[in-house]
Amino acid sequence: MERSLTHIALFAALIAVLGLVPRVDLAAGVPITAQSLGIMLCGTVLGAKRGALAVLLFLLLVALGLPLLSGGRGGLGVFVGPSAGFLIGFPVAAFVAGWVMERTTLPAFWAAAAGAVIGGIGVLYVFGITGMAIVLDKTMSEAALLGLAFLPGDVIKAVVAGLVTQAIARARPAALLARA
């Protein structure tokens, strides 16, 4: 139990640290950040439940006003802005990435990359694009077109998540809780 809580807190901090990487703002008001890599890693390293809990802890801290999102944003207002759908989808994305990682017998890189693509891109885009459509008063097609700007970077992040997860599996197999 103590070990799980430590890992959950550590990965919530990792997501926050990835917010320090300078963001790139899109015209739609949703920034491109490194934090989605943290979401992917929460699932691929910690597994479905712990990964989702780490993200929920991070979002709780953001909701309380800590400026942990890229650009130093925080507070309840971020949950009604253009990126609200992505934020709401973060824990679900981490859960799905972890679920894929836990249930496949593929080598760590391929399992993590698949989990990151399915959860960290596919599931997250469903929430994010829906949120953009609602907040920006766009059709789903228009919002999906806006969301395509994120795809190249997110594919790179999925590969990085696979490589990092594979490195952890090789160096410290017991630390890969998604496979424990």
From TrEMBL:
Q: Does the keyword Chloroplast apply?
A: no
Recorded GO molecular functions are: biotin transmembrane transporter activity
Q: Does the keyword Transmembrane helix apply?
A: yes
Q: What is its main location?
A: membrane
Q: What's a single GO CC term here?
A: plasma membrane
- The species is Pseudotabrizicola algicola
**Keywords annotated in UniProt:** Cell membrane, Membrane, Transmembrane, Transmembrane helix, Transport
This protein is called: Biotin transporter
Query: Where would you find the membrane-spanning parts of this chain?
Result: 51-69, 76-101, 107-136
Location(s) in or outside the cell: Cell membrane
Task: Give the similarity note.
Answer: Belongs to the BioY family.
PANTHER family, alphabetically? Answer: BIOTIN TRANSPORTER BIOY (PTHR34295), BIOTIN TRANSPORTER BIOY-RELATED (PTHR34295:SF4)
**What is the membrane topology listed in the Swiss-Prot or TrEMBL record?**
Multi-pass membrane protein
